[in-house]
Write a structure and sequence with these properties.
By secondary structure, the chain is of the alpha/beta class. 40% of the residues lie in helices and 16% in strands. The structure holds guanosine-5'-triphosphate and magnesium ion.
Length: 236
């Protein structure tokens, strides 16, 4: 494959029921992109990605040995990516590959260094999503907190669809291995004066595989951990 312009980073933990559809969707929308499947699970995700390489030359399955969480997997993807521009995309198909061009657009045009997909901005479509009141309220609360730390309005800190330049992500240099990296990278980008844009995206409920956040108490705990780590990132 020729040097790609765009690398799509897809962190996976036990996504054997989603990975094929995810690869097909991303390759349909961005046929020239490099698609990194960064697998930290124990199921057939890696084998499925490998078996699709014949039909999709952009696919590169990577075993994230000693996987420590989504942040760790995305960092592994950043180190392995060949393109100057990257996007992260969740494998669970809650976000839509059709939104990747809109999220990548401002970065590709040089208008910003980091784009955040947002489920809570005018223009975002959540009609295929069964609202989970506490999850949504928590995400909004967290985004308000991150806005204070970033010194600018962020409507959705934790959407699984974001894009950045290689140079920006090198400067951001996020450290968290788990979910907190999503908020940490925004706080660090703002601290470094990088240009951040938000783009409304569609959002749907998971239809296959299992969310890593099934228990309400664990979700509250995760929110508190993200807040504490983002606060630390602001002052580190
Ligand atoms: N490598 C790796 N990937 C992970 C890990 N946890 C989650 N992922 C992947 O990150 C993406 C988002 O994970 P989800 O479980 O959907 O988390 P979420 O979207 O915050 O939670 P829900 O909204 O409940 O779906 C999916 O592609 C997961 O497979 C992990 O520990 N390691
Ligand atoms: Mg999800």
């Amino acid at each position: 494959m020729a040097q790609p312009d765009i690398s799509i980073l897809i962190a996976c933990r036990n996504e054997e029921d989603n990975v094929e559809r995810c690869i097909r969707e991303v390759a349909r929308v961005l046929p020239q992109a490099e698609i990194l499947i960064i697998d930290g699970g124990t199921d057939r995700t890696f084998a499925i990605a490998e078996s699709l390489q014949g039909g999709f030359p952009g696919v590169r399955p990577i075993r994230n040995t000693g996987d420590r969480g989504k942040g760790h997997a995305i960092r592994t993807g950043i180190s392995a990516a060949s393109a100057p521009i990257m996007a992260q995309f969740d494998c669970d198909l809650q976000f839509f590959a059709d939104d990747l061009p809109a999220v990548l657009g401002p970065v590709l045009r040089g208008e910003c260094d980091l784009t955040l997909g947002s489920r809570f901005r005018a223009g975002s479509d959540r009609s295929a999503y069964q609202p989970l009141f506490f999850r949504d309220a928590g995400n909004r609360l967290l985004s308000g907190f991150i806005s204070l730390l970033a010194g600018r309005r962020i409507t959705d800190a934790t959407a699984g669809i974001k894009a950045w330049t290689r140079d920006a992500i090198r400067q951001i240099d996020f450290r968290d291995d788990r979910y907190s990296y999503e908020a940490e990278l925004i706080v660090r980008a703002a601290k470094r004066g990088l240009r951040i844009a938000e783009v409304p995206v569609r959002y749907a409920s998971r239809t296959a595989g299992a969310s890593m956040h099934r228990n309400t108490w664990k979700v509250i705990q995760a929110g508190l951990v993200i807040m504490a780590k983002s606060l630390a990132a602001r002052f580190r």
